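Here we describe the complex-level prediction in full. Unlike the single-chain runs in Section 2.1, the six entities below were treated as one system.
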Amino acid sequence: MKEFYIRDAAQQENKVVTTSFVISNKQIKSKKSGEPYLDLTLMDRTGTIQAKMWDNVEECAYTFEQDDILKIKGLINKYNQRWQLTIHKVRKMDEAEIDFSDYLPKTSKDIDGLWRALGEFVSSIGEPHLRLLLELFMADPEIARAYRNAPAAKTMHHAFIGGLLDHVVSLCRSCDLVARNYPFINRDLLLTGAFLHDIGKVHELSYARSFGYTTEGQLLGHMVIELELLHTKLAQVPGFPPQLKILVEHLIISHHGQYEFGSPKLPMFPEALMLHYLDDLDSKMEAMRAQFEHDAELDSPWTAYNSALARPLLNTRKFLKSLDADELEAEPVVAPIE
Amino acid sequence: MKEFYIRDAAQQENKVVTTSFVISNKQIKSKKSGEPYLDLTLMDRTGTIQAKMWDNVEECAYTFEQDDILKIKGLINKYNQRWQLTIHKVRKMDEAEIDFSDYLPKTSKDIDGLWRALGEFVSSIGEPHLRLLLELFMADPEIARAYRNAPAAKTMHHAFIGGLLDHVVSLCRSCDLVARNYPFINRDLLLTGAFLHDIGKVHELSYARSFGYTTEGQLLGHMVIELELLHTKLAQVPGFPPQLKILVEHLIISHHGQYEFGSPKLPMFPEALMLHYLDDLDSKMEAMRAQFEHDAELDSPWTAYNSALARPLLNTRKFLKSLDADELEAEPVVAPIE
Amino acid sequence: MKEFYIRDAAQQENKVVTTSFVISNKQIKSKKSGEPYLDLTLMDRTGTIQAKMWDNVEECAYTFEQDDILKIKGLINKYNQRWQLTIHKVRKMDEAEIDFSDYLPKTSKDIDGLWRALGEFVSSIGEPHLRLLLELFMADPEIARAYRNAPAAKTMHHAFIGGLLDHVVSLCRSCDLVARNYPFINRDLLLTGAFLHDIGKVHELSYARSFGYTTEGQLLGHMVIELELLHTKLAQVPGFPPQLKILVEHLIISHHGQYEFGSPKLPMFPEALMLHYLDDLDSKMEAMRAQFEHDAELDSPWTAYNSALARPLLNTRKFLKSLDADELEAEPVVAPIE
Amino acid sequence: MKEFYIRDAAQQENKVVTTSFVISNKQIKSKKSGEPYLDLTLMDRTGTIQAKMWDNVEECAYTFEQDDILKIKGLINKYNQRWQLTIHKVRKMDEAEIDFSDYLPKTSKDIDGLWRALGEFVSSIGEPHLRLLLELFMADPEIARAYRNAPAAKTMHHAFIGGLLDHVVSLCRSCDLVARNYPFINRDLLLTGAFLHDIGKVHELSYARSFGYTTEGQLLGHMVIELELLHTKLAQVPGFPPQLKILVEHLIISHHGQYEFGSPKLPMFPEALMLHYLDDLDSKMEAMRAQFEHDAELDSPWTAYNSALARPLLNTRKFLKSLDADELEAEPVVAPIE
Amino acid sequence: MKEFYIRDAAQQENKVVTTSFVISNKQIKSKKSGEPYLDLTLMDRTGTIQAKMWDNVEECAYTFEQDDILKIKGLINKYNQRWQLTIHKVRKMDEAEIDFSDYLPKTSKDIDGLWRALGEFVSSIGEPHLRLLLELFMADPEIARAYRNAPAAKTMHHAFIGGLLDHVVSLCRSCDLVARNYPFINRDLLLTGAFLHDIGKVHELSYARSFGYTTEGQLLGHMVIELELLHTKLAQVPGFPPQLKILVEHLIISHHGQYEFGSPKLPMFPEALMLHYLDDLDSKMEAMRAQFEHDAELDSPWTAYNSALARPLLNTRKFLKSLDADELEAEPVVAPIE
Amino acid sequence: MKEFYIRDAAQQENKVVTTSFVISNKQIKSKKSGEPYLDLTLMDRTGTIQAKMWDNVEECAYTFEQDDILKIKGLINKYNQRWQLTIHKVRKMDEAEIDFSDYLPKTSKDIDGLWRALGEFVSSIGEPHLRLLLELFMADPEIARAYRNAPAAKTMHHAFIGGLLDHVVSLCRSCDLVARNYPFINRDLLLTGAFLHDIGKVHELSYARSFGYTTEGQLLGHMVIELELLHTKLAQVPGFPPQLKILVEHLIISHHGQYEFGSPKLPMFPEALMLHYLDDLDSKMEAMRAQFEHDAELDSPWTAYNSALARPLLNTRKFLKSLDADELEAEPVVAPIE
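The structure predicted for the assembly as a whole is:
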């Protein structure tokens, strides 16, 4: 447990704190005098803060690199409407001291609860081979640990610890809901696709100290990685029907929906097409939500340009706030599902 | 009520029938003798059938054109695995004799039931201006009649009488379901968008005797048409908030989601983006369902090439039929909506 | 009337001036001492100038924001071949003191003369409904004021006060000329399209203190806005033929010529296609002219990369200046119009 | 002079004519008896007509091929609302008998008049090197003959004898008109570009008996061909300024305006950009005009799908015919050219 | 061994033959009398021929379908410059009678020779794990049989029995040659990629009676199929380095070179990029060669439009035949490989 | 011969050197005191180095511009892991003092050796007209000098003195090798294409002091330039067959392979298509090699993002270095060329 988190800066204004951060950007710049100073971006799981170290830089400047975790003593002050830290002392931490979960952004949801929700979806699958397949994944301690921690992307959406699980549970929920409206949809297949579609991200992305791609991730991508994970587990399911195997493989490799997004095949059956749409929708809803959260303090209902969606976004709630908000919040109709 | 419908051909094999059809294609060809014969495609709301008239063609060949409705007497016979009609006599019908609903393909669902379901969605809208706006549309007898009859497209999906209503009710249902998974979604706005997004098709498409585009439809398109319909009705809602007006207009003009599909603006707020996704998904689910229905008799689980989706489709149910189907049909889990 | 305009900097070198500017960019930076200083971009209708304020910054730095208009006292000096202003004192001005026309770039042409030229084109329209329609627009004082002031774009072309009017008059002139070469062109329709095609920019763009998009502009765009303006005015023209209405609407929504430029329909009749071509040509000719003006001082006949045209441009006149320029300037042939 | 032209078929109904045609399509089909019959498309410069030869086919069927010119005797009759010819006798003509100008579609304008108009534009060029260059082209008898005969395209626009000249004269006229509206345009350069931009089509296209591409045309295209023509003539202009040479070459190779239309460079100066726009506009205006002429007999104001423009077209005049046409025809305003 | 092959038709003109064919297209048409006749396309491994059966059709028309193999008796005759067969009698053959190799187009090269050449490339690989991996593939009798028979594509290139092997051997040869020019290329990796890049086609394509896609091929594609084949064999190579595994997987999934051609990853190291280029080049060289062979009889050096390359092709040799051909054939220089 | 080259900085650490550089970037910045200082990027043919001049700047700052060559005295020191130069004195050099070859990056290969290798390829061409044509190019002293010096591109690949020649020799070698695998390839044509395909770069690019485009290069491009060079030399080859001329011209204008890369025609015969592939391959192999060289010091086998290839690259050798490298280096098989 860190002594101080970035989100609590306001409580420490003009005080000296001693705590730890991961270095997400390090630059050595020079004062006019020719002496170097350090310009750093520090991160913990609650945010980022700019920091400068003006003195005694030479003796410590080369003792650490980006992605290292440092113990830092310094002064919290406000400058140009933002918090910053003037560093007095730094020291690189030993691995043994580090609790990595302190440094990366993390879902605000309860990971155990999400994991249980995912388990309930798996239990609800009627087709026994598919259910057993997914249970094997959940029972594999290495996969379970990774599945609960991995982000869903490097930058585009759900880029935080727990993001993969958060995204998959939300997607399962959308699948479960929309399947009710299309009676010819095989819900078991659809949920299996939702469970597996991004599972390769546990090896595609690295997320120990910062978010990046592994070599395997760069060269193969999560779809190819998850095919191999699938085959390993399939070997443990007796009598898995070969037709089902092909359908599950197709769900995986077609879920990006288009060639230019890296799917080598277009979705060719209803469950594959629906998985693609709901996955894409969930990613973009989360990208919008995160952008609104990020820009919550702005006066304008318009956000900054969102690069994942390649447009600025309008926060509908803010824009409508002059209306009586209560009027807009009505009870959901009891949906007339046939 | 017609005396005979094309879907009942098997019951009249090698019998002479007298009934009416719309001419969906007419060609005059010549026999080797130099004499003309007629090669027609006939349609009623249950299907199409090829027909040939060999004799006495000259006296009737120029008495009718494509899209006319004829009373026809002829012999039902099977040729090359398909039904055909050898025509003995034809006569163009008077407008007064015609019940146009006999000739165009039509939804198999109950239009009154769909209309009631749409009304229930409207009633469930909490924001009073939006609810009143939609109620005005439903109460307008001219619009109501058209909304209940129009197809949703010329060829791509829901290309049948009642298709527009069928599509909109299904879309409202998907919107209602998925909104439960994204608490920041304004359900009232989303349903308003679903109700209005294709309403201009009542003027864009002509569907009295065949499906086509009106001049207005060709030059303006349904999005521009529905803006004007919207403005006419808005004038009747006292105190409609100007912010809401802009949001509703944006929902309309952005619902195709991309410039190349004719949206002059990209969806810029969550309800607009969700409307686009669920609209597109509903269209494609129906296109798949219709293709499966069309190819139901084929042995292969693969359909013919589907031009709306630009790929052949796999009928998952057919493909999996060798598995014990019962195992695949499980109870929906009680979705853990937060 | 401001005391000093940026284009006159050379006459005030090393003098202290007191005048007003709009803040087009404001940054607070820090000196090595840790003290803040201000780095500003100032604008008036004749240009922009960089400014720095080194002292007493804290007391004034948060008293104003970008787009505010300030009274400033400071020293004009030249640095690194460019003029800059070292600020001594600043004060935010009251709305009452401000003549907004002082601060935004403005056409160098006579706006009254342009407005009269536009009126003459309107008077020359033979079809009485179209002429009356446009006369109603010109007689509407709110629209007239906006039409005379609005820029034609935020950055791409005619991005200055009066730019919309300047562009439309030039476009009317091109339409009038080219129509002589194509006798089947309906000149009345073409001119009506030219008059209306960008009129929605009066609401799409904001241009009080800087050029930007309104929320309406972002969500709807000028084409959709001008449809509503059109309908309002059409209601005042008795007996406006419905065919003409559809043609005018199509001229508006198709004038960008392609889906990817935000036209929901492609131009489908000759006047619509011609309007698109001549509008695009006029925009690009102005973009070239403005770039040549901007780079007039450069030795090279090549301009900087022009982002509107996505290429560098060659100033033909500069490039050919070594030839006897007189030889290149010949009398226009009496064009053999049929 | 042929004895009979296809456009005069109505005057010969049910009469036997003897005249000549070029064979634009030849198929040998078989009667049910197993005997062959001929199904031909015949063309002369006034149109095309279908023809059938039922008897004595074997002895003549292999005596001619597509693109040959035949003397034909046969009966003109009407069938299925179109004229056709029942052939009695055919004979392949000797080259000596043939006046090729009888067989290909040809501009209805006076070629000598167009040629004079082109000459006047050349004479109006002030810059002496450019004027001399173009005069050399006009004085070259081989080029002059080809320039007066070549079509401007195989199928897209101006696809008739004299089409190149027709297009260039119209383009010169548009250039001359529009240049008046942009004072910084170098009219001499612009007209030189208009004169030369398609001159390579004299070698790119073959048009003796039908329209096609030469091998040179296929492998090089008209732009590359005209560069070589240009260099040959430039060698005869003493002191041609090298800057002008580069500009003229750029006008030629950039006039398609975009890479995907075969221009290896984008237009980079105002005259090149204007030439591209006005050339494209003139082609499309002619494509529209020709489609309207082709569909003049249709009741609908909509034409068939136009493949050059990839859309159906609306004939504005037909569509507006219910209005008082006179009202639409007004005097051109005296354009207020500055 | 069939009694007669289509390529030998000229030797049987006007004779009755009895032999077998696969039905590649079957249509039932009707004579004017109303009686049906058969219009068939027959294929054997040497070509295709059109056939008609006029009499006694009803009793046999429904006894066979497309892709069936029939024993046929009929008359060879020439009609309209092409060979055709008038059928007297047909009979569907039993599986036991059929030698399938008689019916599909097949490489003209010696398959055993190609297989040995492939084996020599494998033997030349220095890295022992890669060599052992490929040896395991070659030693697997099921894969070996399929690898020797599969076509390389359905229609685009090498669409004949043995086409896969033919293509891979040629590609290995190109790889071996070009690698000599780029010393930093790892030849072992490159050859491994060449060996494996299309091996999944043994399951992607069906080629027993005609060329098509399997369901696995449609849903997964050959790249995904070959990943699984690879993993199966890798399990048998002790100590296969994990880095090498990732590189080989990347070679497989990136070899189409671009997302839109179905590669989920772009080639990211030199061997992957070179494999993509040489594979693409080999396919297109073969497509050109096959088109030249197909159009060998045409007088023109231009071929028909080639749909794989989306352009017509020029046969350079034919085009240059008027030159002294000997002059063009020179000795290869001894390439100065460094 | 310069006194000091940038690559030798390590040997002069903390010493004062006097030598010359070309200025590839010059910025005047201001110290906090308001005084200016110079921030320069210096280049010679061995690399680049950052330099700062702190004192006496005013008197020299405007005496030189970018691309000028200066004699500079200053201190070599290391800062932030990179070498920099603190300037004491600068002086602009006279043209007479300058050996331009000292300042631009240059191939590390022996230019004379490359030129001889090119000559051997020319000598090996059997077709006498083609061989004579290329010999004329090599014998032209102006072209020879330029061909030996020009870079092959401004930034993408082979962007160094001698790069054009280096690229062409390597391409000839690849052509010579691959042609052995495709017996229908006319090697003489292919080598002629390789020799000529980029020769226009001698006029397209300027490379006296830095790499840029000439006006001719910008407006015409190297393909158009080399057509004119070709025509000039063709005039000196008696009896050059016109068919060959067209083929050579097509090789030149189609070698970019696609319209969007500036080829006005797609490659239409085998030699043109092969030239395009091998040219593109050679460019990309060199781009990869240069990136590996540039990033040789990095620990990671991944390079920085490569903008020419629009992806990061994996250095295969580095990645595999943990394997026994010897095992990977095998003898090339004796390629079984047919």
